[in-house]
Amino acid sequence: MKLAKILFLHSELAKYFIASLKELSKKAEVHVVHWPINSEAPFKFDKDREINYYPKHEFTSEQLLALCQDISPDMVIVSGWRDKEYMSIIKELVQVPVRVMSLDNPWAGKVKQRIWSALSRKSLLPFFTHCWVAGERQRTYARKLGFKENRILDKLYSADSELFERVNQIRVSKTTKERAKRFVYIGRYSEEKGIDILFDAFLDYSKKPENDWELWCLGTGPLFDQKPEHERIKHFGFVQPEDMPKILEEVDAFVLPSIFEPWGLVAHEMAAAGLPMILTDKVGATEEFLVDGKNGFLVVPGSKNELRVAMEKITQLSEKEYVEMSKVSSELSKRQSPAIWADNVMELL
Q: Which of 83, 103, 135, 340 is the most exposed place for a label (fewest CB within 10 A)?
């Protein structure tokens, strides 16, 4: 049987996306045009032979359009509308029966969003049959753009579930005495991530003798050179995805104090790893992967005090309470997976 052809006009590649593509390649012929690797996050990838990759920067605009037309896809999935070249291409592929625009930006009622909502009837809707959103906040935006409810697909992102579930299997074998007593932060060192507030909150937390946990931080960014040096704060810098599991086996809770976080796929990853989590209500993924008080704590963004209190609550959990939180994280993570992601795509054909 001839496989359907699915073409992605994608932004930056990431390991989680490739894991989902591998699942999809079991059901369809997959082609991916993508941006160059981000120098700030130079991930190394093992590209699957079953997937056809085309680095965008290696083609002229004319060559890229010709390539997409030659592929003759049954479905095209475009990463938003900010890439003008991709938008030019999709306008030439209106004969493709299924044309999907992805959307991870939540509706906030901003002026630019209202302008796009007004213009979308001419600039977006004629060229896309569906909108694929990360979560409920993005679904609201899709409606504002004019997409009908039955044309909006959810669960845009999935963690590489299998990778992080293996971490959880190792972690559940540990007892209280074996716990590392470490929080972990994974993300950019940047203002919108609230990492400066995290450092301040942790330094306050550390002033009490009974608060003896460490803070491990993975990532880099514009604030990296301003990072505090402290005996219980460890800065790893950028970490390759394949090196992440070993580190996660040595931590006990995840913190993401973002001021702005449209989705935050890392919350799905950490839930799959079975970690209790501290997240702000600005992290979009909280709607799927955090139940306040059940597998972690929801805090107000920008509040150093709330963050400190939440860290103290994690520190003070009994073994029974900790294990229960870990179980809830693991169960919530199963709401999405690369297999579910691939099935969602195929249902559009």
A: 340
Task: CATH number of the domain at 72, please.
Answer: 3.40.50.2000
* CA terminus-to-terminus distance, the chain: 15
Q: Domains in the chain: how many in total?
A: 2
**Do residue 239 and residue 171 come from a single domain?**
yes
Q: Using CA atoms, how far apart are residues 332 and 274, in angstroms rounded to an integer?
A: 10
Residue 177: predicted pLDDT: 62
For the question of whether the overall pTM of this predicted structure is more than 0.90, the answer is yes
pLDDT of residue 242: 86
Does residue 62 sit in the same domain as residue 77? yes
Closest CA to 140 of 100, 102, 108: 108
**Boundaries of domain holding 341:** 5-158+336-346
Whether 147 and 181 map to the same domain: the answer is no
pLDDT under 50: residue ranges of the chain: none
- Determine the residue type at 222: P
Domain identity same for 12 and 77:
yes
Using CA atoms of 193, 197, 203, 204 in order, give the dihedral in degrees to the nearest 10. -140
Residue 246 has what pLDDT? 94
Please state, in angstroms and rounded to a whole number, the distance separating the CA atoms of residues 317 and 163.
27
Place of tokens 């997976």: 337
